[in-house]
Amino acid sequence: MPMTSRLRQALFLLLLPVAVCAQSAGDYVIGAQDVLTVAVFDQADLGGKYAVELDGSFTFPLIGRVKAGGMTIRDFEAELKNKLSDGFFRNPQITVAIEQYRSQRVFVTGEVRTPAAYALTGDMTLIEALAKAGSTTQFASDEVLVVRGGRGAETAATPGAAGRETIRVNLKDLQSGTAGARNVDLGDGDTIYVARAELAYVFGQVKTPGSYPIKTDTSVLQALSLAGGVMPTGAMNRTRVIRTVGGEKKELRVELTDIVQPGDTLVVPERFF
What angle do CA 39, 42, 48 make, to 5 degrees? Predict the structure, then answer.
């Protein structure tokens, strides 16, 4: 029994490569060097992969040079359909998807495992970009900056420069789903900068004295844990902090639940037997 046109069209859509369907984002703006996958129903010879050239155009069968750069995928599908409808086919069914994202990038710098430029794929968010960079390191602070209006690491060096919008995000709030935390939608040329956490120092009767990165809510007990914990010879309940107050260093008594401040030096004294 001959296959109807409607059935052939349904099979055509079902047999599109899964990866291509997943990557098709109608609002993505096509740019130079992107590679498009174009499929035309019932016209297999027209389908294929087409690289967008530096001028934003490429050569398509029957219609010649066609402009794609600066258009969304959805708009380009409509444009291609109009051109093929003009004397070639009646109501052609066209699907366009991104095979390779090459024109748009975001830059991830600072305290991440793999700082680099990454292709902007569809509707990428801050969390997705950090995941591509291997997530943050143990030295990362809670604050992440998203700098718009520039390209590359130089934007992170001057986040307050004129014409550059800077969005500050508390990563801890974002990861915990705190109300109001914003998972920023990224655009071409955005730079994500993960700041390095400030340090506190732990000395005395602890297993591993030294400097340790602290978060905004790191407690004295947590800081002691970073140093490997208190030794049996240590008097944890008599821990002192040396802190700069008003330009002067002062030694203060602290509770284990107190919050450690950047630059603090915690000292665990020896126990009296």
Answer: 25
pTM of the model: 0.66
Question: Which is the CATH superfamily of the domain at 105-196?
Answer: Outer membrane lipoprotein wza domain like (3.10.560.10)
Tokens of residue 173, six digits: 């709030």
Strands 166-170 and 199-204: unpaired
Tokens 């900068």 locate to 193
pLDDT in tens, 206-251: 999 999 999 888 999 999 999 999 999 999 999 999 999 988 999 9
Long-range contacts of 163-172 (CB under 8 A, 24+ apart): 168/143, 168/144, 169/126, 169/143, 169/144, 169/145, 170/142, 170/143, 170/144, 171/130, 171/136, 171/140, 171/142, 171/143, 171/144, 172/142, 172/215, 172/216
CATH assignment, 5-100:
3.30.1950.10
Kindly report, residue by residue over 9-47, the tens digit of the pLDDT.
Answer: 444 344 434 333 434 467 888 999 999 999 998 888 888
Domain residue extents for the chain: 5-100, 105-196, 199-268
